[in-house]
Amino acid sequence: MKGSLRKRNQYWYIIVETKDESGNRKQKWINTKCEKKTDAEKFLRETLTKIDNNSFVQPQRKLKFTEFMLNWLNNVIKSEVEETTWEGYEMIVTKHIIPYFISKNDILLQELQPMHLQKYYETKYQDDPSTGKKGLSAKTLRRHHANIRSALKFALRMNLILFNPADRIVLPKQEKFNASYYTVEQLEKLFEVCLGTPIESAVYLAAHYGLRRSEVLGLKWDCIDFEEKTISIKEVRVKYGKEVVVKKPKSESSQRILPLMEKLEDYLLHLKKQRKKNKQLYCKDYVDSGLVCCWPDGSPMKTEYLNHKFKDILAKNELPHIRFHDLRHSTASYLIKHGVSLKEIQVWLGHSTISITANTYTHIDMETKKDTAQKINELFSKKAKEATQ
């Protein structure tokens, strides 16, 4: 590319010819901020080389990193992700990233270096002795990093920065997650103590099918086909701020059709009869939400209530503390211990990749491998004994 110099007031300017999207030629003026022509000529040669290498960053007004992150959050990524996903991004950016960097003199985007981000992760990871507040987990920090890296990737694409500093940092090592789960005996006791409570159906479905909480609370009667004997997981209910949003599951693999178990068919038919009685009982006050897991008057059950009631039932009946989501893990652990393959479990649970299934249930899968190792050991021990006789 060719360019020329022209002085305007006290500074020399570079003039280069470019083409717009329609192919029309237009001039671009770049302020060298050089008063001497020799300095401007050197700047011209360096600039033309960067333009040819597609590494030139157009000088512009000073843009703070926090200002850029807020703009990326509200004007770039908001239209690309689901509302509930964006809500998570907003919390990370506005509650963590922006306050931290404002407290550190609000560095300019163009001056942001890997060491600045490295210090951010290290600070957030550490406990705060002055307040007693625990640091964020390595898993949580990886979500922060994903946001920062994505935003800076956009800045790089827009020629606002020369490289992505987020590509050069070292994150804390993520702790291995060990899922909690109940034995069959503990689940049977749980079913017994949940009988007659508002969350009975939610617990029953989650434990038998390994459903997510959002899937249980979003399951509707029209998703249960008693003729074909199937249950379709095609809607979830999730909290978005103070509102509840009904939407499709996050991934295609989560949208799945499962066979209707005989035991569950009898249970659901019983629930359906009770629903009909409740309609007559509440008359015009009945809320026809179409949800399987709901209050007797048909109104939806809130996530907070389900969590609180579940925790309360465990405590009152001296059952080990687990999260409601751990009923899903209990289903998976039972399947693994009974020889069901990880691929089959992936499909059943609706994981997007088999690596998620494998990483989540490695500790349980190891028990199965130990059984296999014992059988191999017994086999070869027997052969060795026969050979010596």
From TrEMBL:
It comes from Paenibacillus donghaensis. Belongs to the 'phage' integrase family. The lineage of its organism: Bacteria, Bacillati, Bacillota, Bacilli, Bacillales. Coiled coil: none annotated. GO terms for molecular function: DNA binding. GO terms for biological process: DNA integration; DNA recombination. The keyword DNA-binding applies. Keywords: DNA integration, DNA recombination, DNA-binding. Residues 177-374 form the Tyr recombinase domain. Residues 63-156 form the Core-binding (CB) domain. InterPro entries: CB (IPR044068), DNA_brk_join_enz (IPR011010), Integrase-like_cat_sf (IPR013762), Integrase_catalytic (IPR002104), Integrase_recombinase_N (IPR010998), Integrase_SAM-like_N (IPR004107), Tyrosine_recombinase_XerCD (IPR050090). It comes from the Bacteria. This is Site-specific integrase.
